[in-house]
Amino acid sequence: MPPTDLIFDDGEPLESDRHRIAMNALIRSLRVALADRDDYFVGGNMFVYFSSEQARNRDFRGPDFFVVLNVDGSRERLGWVVWEEQGRYPDVIIELMSPSTKQVDTGKKKSIYCQTFRTPNYFVYQPFDPNSLQGWYLDIDNGYQELTPNEQGWLWCQPLGLWLGQWSGTIEETSAVWLRFYDRDGNLVPLPEEAAEQRAEVAEQRAEKLAERLRQAGIDPD
């Protein structure tokens, strides 16, 4: 099926503004975490086309967040079309649930991601319920098996080499318990603006130390 026959925008918004912020935060912070790589694609609220029947019926839009590793990350895509990507499916999927989508996200979609996509890691989280985080890893013989959280309640995402866990704070002037990435050592993966603030703080601290050394040497740094 040629790309011109596919629809990449159904006009349906995310469940809420908090869902939108949560999705964008995951995408933007992952780009920070993988800043030294160009061999991945991360998408959010995008169509994933995997069969001609599904494309005709348009009964499955796609994940709220997904990552495909070891692909050309420089190419812009309107959606993910499996038969145009050498048969590659997402390596990691996250659905941002709501009460109205929970049954589908943990039922029909979970089955598709397990049996058809064979996605190694699948996670679900309800942005209005901090205790809703669940995740599964793919066992080749037995399908999805539930991941065991660590002491902080975080779940390990093997394909990305990152933890997924809750973080209480403010993003886009909205305070909530957000789903965030953490590195292997438990450090929060920053958003681009947070990373910029961290760099500015480090630069300021270095400048203050230099000024203090100059004063001790009898030199006025000002």
TrEMBL record:
Residues 193-220 form a coiled coil. GO terms for molecular function: endonuclease activity. Residues 11-162 form the Putative restriction endonuclease domain. Keywords: Coiled coil, Endonuclease, Hydrolase, Nuclease. InterPro entries: Nuclease_put_TT1808, Restrct_endonuc-II-like, Uma2. CDD domains: DUF820-like (cd06260). This is Uma2 family endonuclease. It comes from Moorena producens (strain JHB).
